[in-house]
Design brief:
Largest sheet of chain A: 2 strands, antiparallel
Number of strands of chain A: 7
Number of helices of chain A: 20
Helix content of chain B: under 10%
CATH topology of one domain in chain A: Serine Threonine Protein Phosphatase 5, Tetratricopeptide repeat
Largest sheet of chain B: 22 strands, antiparallel, barrel
CATH class of one domain in chain A: Mainly Alpha
Shape of chain A: globular
Shape of chain B: globular
Largest interface: A-B, 108 and 102 residues
Structural class of chain A: mainly alpha
Oligomer: heterodimer
Number of strands of chain B: 53
Helix content of chain A: 40-55%
Strand order of the largest sheet of chain A: 2-4
């Protein structure tokens, strides 16, 4: 008897029983088996790009926090649809509006993926050149996200590593200065590590480049009013020979323009044949798609009357930016019909995509985040601020020339040299060129004219409050009291 | 001396002679039967009162006795039944019906890995006999338990046919899975939904540490032991056939705005006369009645039961068919069971319990929420007969009737083989070895075809699509136990030692294609679809455990009882360092009723006190690998002009390798008593469950970047309360019983880990509706308090506010008196956990008539009407909005009509009283007299009518205020539109032959 007990006890506590009890998740790698080789480093980096296509990142809340909140666009869709975006459009929102919690979550998830790549890839045994590039890509992507966050929310927690559980509830917001410094550092590292666009193999086109890192850093300097540094970077991009304006403005946002000569940074999307929502797709196109007949999407993000008024007479960019009722779609497939449920509907043509496999939500359009025209106009803006009107005019007339095409009666070259007048003209040109590309709100902020512009279009904008969005109430609640709220909320 | 002895002997012989001589004067015979079941009782004792003259009944329940006189009185007794005394008054034939005694002193109850006499128990074990479940018309045993046992709270998960129930034993002691452990004939399972109530012999609920600790790491939420029927010894097999047919209807409908009222409200929302004449809509469409209907249900069961000296058997076959009250839902089950036990040698018994069931389900779309939401001004169809497109009121609206029409080709087929085989060997006279192998093999297949259709921009399917799924599981457990039991004159000793090993494995895969050449089920198979549209997926999971167990019971003079137990569990869910858990318990009992000083009081038939304490564990996480950091793949990036998809993978979630067992220390003090010849019985318990190291995936801030919340050992929760069970039973020609039970739960969070003060969850419109914090119950409701409605701008100007309020908006309470309303004004609003649950049962029988009524109620909890708060489009409103504030209707309670925003913050406006009192079952039956049916060789024949959920008293405006939510403990009591439960009415018959 005694012996049987001993046998059983040995059985239960022996390593033989440990073999029986050691079970691993099925169908997944685990932390113990990941970050071991080159392939893993590439996968971890690719995963950062993947999140740019998620709803949290580029869906309706993102459009609410960029175009709809600005004077470029109204909520769109039917009157009753998407009431939280109506609140954003009308400046009636508070910290509980899901717009803010969604973009906050989407961007921090992307930052977390970048942090993992940046912190884990250095220990992998793999070729140095590739290792350096991948870390560079991850740093660029992290900086890109913090740049957006700081523009939307001001001070935010600067998370650079995997936080431990005690930090979840003690982390505080870092100052704007600290975040700027980190963005600058990440982008400087990225500029050093990343190749130019032309140095990538065709199948890698779309990965972060030296030019893209310089472009975002230039934007940071513009925001920080370091115009000389910004101009230097813009001119490095211009003189690199890597980019050119596409001859036809109409083409930039068609499939032909994807990763084209004007593209500095964009997120690739594809509608795979075999799936309902493919693993390469985005909701970005669907939420802005024509609603009604033809039925291509939800019809949000309506180009505003004020935007239309901004275009100079005959500017062909208006037609290229807006889909009107009665218009033939860019692929010639059909005429857009009036939808009786939407008053005076218009749609964002820059998010339009042609016939593709799967349903609306299988959006195949690449999401353009930085293009050459943007850099040229930043150069113009910087040059003017630095008092170099000649240079400013040279740059601003580049985009006008392209827009004008062969029609010499419209969009004549600017000749103003008065600094203030030229500033106004460059701003107007910038709006026409980049309308409905989610830049406007950030531009208004950079220029410090949010209050003036939004009040002018009749929004109840509250100065010293609405310049920044509120931190999501969920985040303040979950943060256990360590996160403060922006003024006025 | 010698002479003296001889004399006595002679007198004795003489007496015997006289007795037999007198006996010859009066011969009595008859049959002894059980009153309730009409079954004959074998081995019942018939004694002539005041003599030693007696006999027992034979295998047919017949007796024959020679009595000393025709005026004698006989006493009939049988274990578990009330003694019957009859004056024979010269009769020659007396058939005797015996009523079961309410509390069975020597009733044997099943405890983990063995059985014990009820009087020897030192733990809190409640026992329910199968007889009490036989007449319940629910298809599974889980729902049948509602209101039957004090301290066991049962609520249906939904009204979906075949749905199970959420069961809580003594409150919610974890932030995690709080379901009790089910042990079906020794096989450990996660639910008992496959068990047919009519197959059940007994159900034992192990409520305290002393009884449940033998299940160690899985006993913390209590254990429910289900024993299925085995054969009973009789001359011939008993065959039985029973059947019922019923009709079900929704328990009630929610009162919504009718067409006219909605049109008025919509005008108020827009501030225009959008509908110039709201009255043209009249009542409008009642969408709830469009998607629900009254639905039939039917059950038929055949059984064969018997035993000879060496073999006993029980066979049953069952067919159950239920349509759901929501159209296009149904549940159909065919099942059989065979239990046998064979005494092969005096020292060897082999046996098995086997059940096999085949379930077919129709899983129509759950359109309860969309029916609730769709505005009543819309008709179901347009004039041309096509479905109306409701998206004028917002993209988030789909036509629920169209969904039922297009999305109902959704079927599931599953099979489940569950059982055990065992061998029992008597090693020595008092020592038995038992080896038990339990198994559960199941498979389910789903098949969903959605045709191409379009109702609106958001309610459409561009290509017809077939998705199939298949899952299977194999679970086994192998237990080796040694049981020693020795009885001396004044002492008994029992010792159990054992070793068990078990493994669970699941695997699943699925595939789909689009575009099929036809729409008939014969055509739609994967290979007929377009192969460029194919998708597939698959995965698996497993877990394992090994355990040692030990228990000893000792009793002295049948008065002083002691039990101690210990289980050691090693689980695959934790890392080797944290894998082993030790779960001890100890308890004592004192049968005061056997002490002379109590017996002298002549008050108690029985009185026992018991005290227990023990440590139990919990590891019941849905995640079987909670400590592993998973690398998520499929995070693809698209690069290059050819738009190739590049593999991406990274860990999306934070893991915690230091995770360990959840532990709960439980104390129980109990008292059991019987009075007035056991007509009145009473059982009382006080308990205290202190759970700590509770594992939870606590919500963390989003800036951490984790896509899921990590599991941590986080909190401490105390549940305490009392349970009271009271029964009165009177047997006789008019036989009746009244039972009542009552239990309380006081749930309180005692600590949260790592200095965290609060856990917010259940986010409603961007704000948490629950806040779990020390000193309050788990998942306590949280939000703003409403003080009224702003009547005018002056009132707004002079009151604390958010800032954008207009006349007619809700006025919230400035709880912190800082002059503004903001997030700081949110406060505790109440508890989702019922403070009291209670039940009352009546039963009566008179000359073949039987009547039964079960009532069940809960009290002291609130329900959050979540469905009223989500407004992603303009949905219909509940009736109260008809009284919304307008300048002409200065309502003080109902704000102006708005669609989201200020008036829809989580507040006490959406909290309702969750108390209810319900007539669970009501039945009336009639058993035909034996004299009548025996002529056609039928042993018994009963017809009955019964009803379920026929009457409910509640103030809650939804269907049914039971929202136990088996998932997160931080979000309990939220009504977001689940499948309503039904009330039903049945007629049926039962016959035995």
């Amino acid at each position: 008897m005694k012996n049987i007990f001993i046998v059983i006890i040995v059985l239960v506590f022996s390593s033989c029983s440990d073999d029986f009890l050691n079970r691993n998740p099925k169908g997944n790698l685990t932390a113990e088996t990941f970050f071991e080789n080159e392939e893993h480093a590439v996968w971890a980096t690719n995963a950062i790009y993947a999140n740019f296509r998620s709803w949290e990142y580029c869906g309706l809340p993102y459009l609410g926090a960029t175009d709809i909140v600005s004077d470029d666009a109204d909520k769109g869709s039917t009157e009753n649809d998407g009431p939280y975006l109506k609140e954003v459009d009308d400046f009636q929102f508070d910290a509980t509006n899901q717009t803010f919690s969604t973009i906050w979550r989407g961007h921090y998830q992307t930052i977390s993926r970048a942090n993992i790549a940046i912190n884990r890839i250095p220990d992998i045994n793999m070729p140095d050149a590739l290792k350096e590039r991948l870390i560079g890509e991850a740093k660029f992507l992290r900086a890109f996200n913090y740049f957006r966050m700081v523009q939307w929310f001001g001070d935010v927690p600067l998370v650079l590593t995997q936080l431990t559980d005690d930090q979840y509830f003690t982390t505080k917001r870092n100052t704007r200065t600290e975040i700027y410094a980190q963005i600058e550092k990440d982008l400087t590292d990225a500029i050093a590590a990343l190749p130019e666009k032309s140095k990538y193999k065709a199948e890698d086109l779309g990965r972060a480049t030296k030019g893209a890192a310089k472009g975002i850093l230039a934007k940071l300097y513009m925001l920080d009013k370091k115009y000389d540094k910004a101009l230097t970077l813009c001119e490095e991009i211009i003189s690199s020979g890597e980019y050119s304006l596409m001859p036809n403005y109409n083409q930039i946002f068609t499939q032909a323009g994807e990763n084209g000569p004007e593209s500095i940074f964009e997120i690739g999307s594809v509608a795979l044949q075999a799936s309902i929502v493919g693993s390469g797709a985005t909701p970005f196109n669907m939420v802005q798609g024509v609603r009604g007949v033809p039925n291509l999407g939800w019809g949000f993000n309506r180009p505003s009357d004020d935007l239309i008024a901004n275009y100079e007479p005959g500017d062909p960019r208006r037609q290229a930016t807006i889909i009107y009722v009665g218009e033939v779609l860019p692929d010639g497939s059909t005429i857009v019909q009036d939808n009786p449920e939407i008053l005076d509907e218009r749609f964002n043509q820059k998010a339009w995509v042609g016939k593709h496999p799967g349903l609306q939500d299988n959006g195949p359009g690449n999401i353009r985040l930085l293009r050459y025209a943007d850099i040229i106009l930043l150069a113009a803006e910087a040059a003017n601020e630095l008092g170099n009107a000649t240079k400013a005019l040279e740059y601003v007339n580049m985009t006008r020339k392209r827009a004008r095409g062969t029609n010499t009666f419209i969009l004549k070259d600017l000749t103003i040299t008065n600094k203030d007048a030229l500033r106004t003209a460059i701003r107007r040109e910038r709006r026409s060129e980049l309308a409905m590309e989610q830049h406007r709100w950030f531009d208004l902020q950079r220029w410090g004219i949010q209050n003036e512009v939004m009040t002018k279009v009749g929004k109840p904008f509250v100065a010293n409050k609405h310049e920044l969005f509120p931190l999501p109430q969920t985040e303040i609640d979950l943060g256990g009291g360590s996160l403060s709220q922006n003024p006025g909320y | 001396m010698l002479l003296n002895k001889c004399f006595r002997l002679k007198v004795l012989v003489l007496l015997l002679f006289v007795a037999s001589w007198i006996g010859a004067q009066h011969k009595l015979k008859g049959i002894v039967k059980a009153l309730a079941t009409n079954e004959t009782l074998i081995g019942a004792t018939i004694e002539e009162k005041g003599t030693s003259n007696g006999t027992i009944t034979n295998v047919d329940g017949e007796y024959e006795i020679n009595l000393s006189t025709g005026n004698a009185t006989i006493v009939v007794s049988y274990i578990g039944y009330e003694n019957v005394e009859i004056q024979i008054d010269g009769r020659k034939i007396i058939d005797i019906n015996m009523g079961e005694s309410t509390v069975l002193i020597d009733q044997v109850v099943v405890v983990g890995y063995g059985v014990q006499k009820k009087s020897d128990l030192t733990g809190a074990v409640s026992s329910l006999k199968g007889k009490e479940l036989e007449r319940v018309t629910t298809p599974n045993v889980e729902q049948a338990l509602q209101g039957k046992i004090p301290g066991v709270y049962v609520a249906p998960t939904s009204g979906q046919p075949g749905a199970g129930a959420v069961i809580r034993i003594r409150g919610t002691g974890t932030l995690n899975n709080s379901n009790p452990l089910f042990v079906i004939d020794g096989m450990i399972t996660e639910d008992a939904s496959s068990v047919n109530p009519q197959d059940v012999e007994s159900i034992e609920v192990l409520k305290d540490a002393s009884s449940a600790a033998i299940y160690g790491s899985r006993g913390a939420n209590g254990v429910i032991l289900i024993t299925t029927k085995n054969g009973k010894k009789r001359k011939n097999a008993q065959l039985s056939l029973s059947s019922y047919y019923g009709i079900q209807e929704p328990i009630r409908y929610i009162e919504m705005l009718n067409g006219t009222e909605f049109a008025r409200a919509y005008n108020q929302l827009r501030g225009t006369q959008f509908y110039p004449d709201p009255t043209i809509f009249g009542e409008g469409t009642d969408w709830q009645r469009e998607v629900m209907h009254s639905a039939p249900m039917a059950n038929i069961q055949f059984g064969a039961n018997g035993a000879s000296d060496n073999i006993s058997y029980n066979f049953s076959a069952n067919l159950f068919d239920q349509e759901g009250i929501l159209k296009n839902t149904s549940f159909n089950r065919g099942a059989f069971r065979l239990n046998t036990e064979m005494k092969l040698k005096p020292w060897l018994t082999l046996g098995n319990n086997t059940s096999y069931s085949i379930i077919k389900e129709e899983l129509g779309p759950n359109v309860v929420t969309s029916a609730y939401r769709t505005p009543s001004v819309l008709p179901v169809y347009q004039e041309d007969g096509s479905f109306i497109d409701p998206t004028f009121f917002g993209l988030a609206l789909g036509n629920p009737v169209a969904d039922q029409f297009y999305k109902s080709n959704n079927k599931s087929n599953s099979t489940n083989l569950l059982g055990n085989i065992f061998a029992e060997i008597s090693l020595l006279k008092d020592l038995k070895f038992r080896s038990n192998f339990g198994y559960n093999v199941f498979e389910s297949k789903s098949r969903y075809f959605e045709p191409k259709f379009q109702v609106s921009a958001s309610q459409l399917n561009r290509a017809d699509r077939l998705n199939i799924g298949q899952g299977n599981g194999r679970n086994w457990i192998w237990e080796q136990t040694l049981n020693y039991f020795k009885e001396w004159k004044e002492q008994t000793l029992g010792v159990l030692v054992g070793f068990t090993a078990e493994e669970r494995k699941n695997e699943f895969f699925g595939a789909g294609r689009e575009s099929f050449p036809g729409t008939s089920d014969d055509v739609i198979f994967l290979s007929s679809g377009n192969d460029t549209t194919m998708t597939n997926f698959g995965g698996a999971s497993d877990e394992a455990m090994v355990s040692l167990l030990f228990r000893t019971n000792y009793s002295l003079k049948n008065k002083y009882l002691f039990t101690a137990s210990m289980r050691v569990d090693r689980s695959s869910r934790f890392t080797p360092d944290n894998r082993t858990g030790y779960f001890p318990s100890a308890s004592v009992g004192w049968n005061l009723g056997n002490e002379a000083f109590i017996q002298n009081l002549n008050t108690f038939d029985r009185l026992k006190l018991r005290v227990s304490y023990g440590i139990l564990g919990n590891q019941a996480l849905t995640n079987r690998y909670p400590t592993s950091a998973i690398i998520n793949s499929g995070l693809n990036a698209v690069f290059g002009p050819s738009e190739s998809v590049n593999q991406g993978a990274t860990p999306l979630s934070v893991a915690n390798p230091n995770l360990k067992w959840e532990v709960s220390s439980q104390a129980d003090i109990g008292m059991e008593a019987g009075f007035l010849n056991e007509r009145l019985s009473l059982e009382m318990d006080w308990y205290r469950r202190y759970s700590y190291d509770i594992i939870a995936d606590v919500p963390i801030p989003a800036f951490v970047g984790s896509q899921t919340n990590p599991f941590v050992n986080t909190a401490e929760v105390l549940n305490s309360g009392i349970e009271l069970g009271l029964n009165w039973r009177q047997t006789g020609v008019f036989d009746y019983n009244i039972g009542a039970n009552f239990s309380t739960v006081n749930n309180e969070v005692k600590a949260l880990a790592q200095g965290k003060n609060e856990i917010f969850d259940a986010f409603i419109n961007g704000e948490p509706a629950t806040r779990t914090t020390v000193g309050l119950p788990l998942g306590a409701f949280y939000g703003y308090q409403v003080s009224g409605v702003f009547q005018n701008v002056e009132e707004i100007a002079s009151s604390p506010k958010f800032g954008n309020e207009k006349p007619g908006d809700i006025k919230y309470v400035d709880t912190n008196n800082d002059g503004v309303i903001d997030a700081e004004d949110r406060v505790y609003l109440g508890s989702p956990i019922p403070k009291i649950t209670y039940a009352v049962n009546f039963g009566a029988g008179y000359k073949g008539l039987d009547f039964n009524a079960d009532f069940f109620g809960v009290h002291g909890n609130l329900v959050f009407n979540e469905k009223e708060t989500s407004r992603f489009a303009v949905y219909n409103w509940e009736k109260r909005v008809a009284d919304a504030w307008t300048a002409d209707n200065p309502s003080g309670s109902e704000p102006r009509v708005t669609n989201g925003g200020h008036n829809y913050r989580p507040s006490d406006r959406f909290l309702q009283d969750g108390s209810f009192f319900r007539l669970r079952t009501l039945s009336l039956g009639y058993t035909l007299p034996t004299s009548l049916v025996s002529k056609v060789k039928v042993e018994s024949f009963r017809i009955f009518v019964s009803g379920t959920n026929l009457w409910t008293r509640q103030t809650f405006t939804g269907y049914n205020p039971e929202f136990p939510n088996s998932g997160s403990p931080f979000k309990v009591g939220f009504d977001n539109g689940s499948y309503p439960i039904a009330k039903s009415f049945q007629v049926g018959l039962e016959t035995k032959f």
